[in-house]
Amino acid sequence: MAEEGGLLQAPDVYMEKIAIGPGSPPNVVDLDEGTSKNLQNLARAKGKDVSDLVACILNRPRHEEIISDTRQAGARIQLIQDGDVAGVIATARDDTGIDIYMGIGGAPEGVLAAAALQCIGGQMQGRLVFRNDEERGRAVKLGIQDLSKKYELSELAHGQVMFAATGVTDGSMLRGVRRSSISASTESLVMRSKTGTVRVISGQHDLTRKTLFTSSQA
Asked: Can you list the domains of the chain with their CATH numbers?
């Protein structure tokens, strides 16, 4: 959630992404640099060796080159099967051990991830990736004029931002829904850019209490 105009209206296409957590100088990593160069620059900024870095990458055939280049550079890799929003957020959470996220995933998910980083700090760049003219047309219909633009974090999400997510299935960031015959438990994450507050909320839901909503109450 953001103020009007605070989130990029991204088309349903792919986006190339790179993200790191807070604490590094501006422009340490850049989509226009190679994987090895980005890892070297980040390691220098963190006072580490490249071999100390952990890169989070979505396990997809399209990332074979990034994975190969990361291994050749000497960094470690944590492959994830899905959920690149969680992968980006992981760069800003101390308990994950993730230093950098790289790869191509959904553009709307990139905006969601940027909203989270605006709340907790970090750096991110994104660039739309098109496979055909139909996908380019989706972007044009949304008013995007420069189809090759490299978006900074503040262009993906800015102003007063809130981010909320609830786990449906188990993932690296949140537990999924747990059900019994009479109840369900959920785990949610809520962030706020104004204060930098991060709340993890455990919910217990009594399924025996059914509430009926009319159209005027919904």
From this structure: 14-158 (3.40.190.90), 165-206 (no CATH)
Q: For residue 150, what are the β-bridge partners? A: 127
Residue 160: other Cβ atoms inside 10 A: 13
- Give me the residue label for tokens 């059914």: 210
* Chain-centroid distance, C-alpha 170: 17
Whether 172 and 83 have beta carbons less than 8 Å apart is answered as yes
- Beta pairing, strands 162-166 & 178-179: unpaired
Order of strands, edge to edge, in the sheet holding 54-58? 76-80, 54-58, 100-106, 14-20, 123-129, 150-152
Q: What is the DSSP letter of 25?
A: P
Model pLDDT for residues 50-106, shown as the tens digit of each residue: 999 999 999 999 999 999 999 999 999 999 998 889 999 999 998 899 999 999 999
Q: What gap in Å lies between CA 100 and CA 98, rounded to an integer?
A: 6
What pLDDT digit, counting tens, does each position of 125-147 carry? 999 999 999 999 999 999 999 99
Q: What percentage of the chain has pLDDT greater than the value 70?
A: 96
Q: Is the pTM of this model over 0.85?
A: yes
Both structure tokens of 116: 């989270």
- The total of other beta-carbon atoms located within 10 Å of residue 209's CB is 8
The answer for residues whose C-beta is within 8 angstroms of residue 20's C-beta and 6 or more apart is: 28, 29, 42, 91, 99, 100, 101, 122, 123, 124
Return the residue matching tokens 């839901």: 205
Q: What is the DSSP string of 156-178?
A: HB-SSBEEEEE-SS--SSS---E
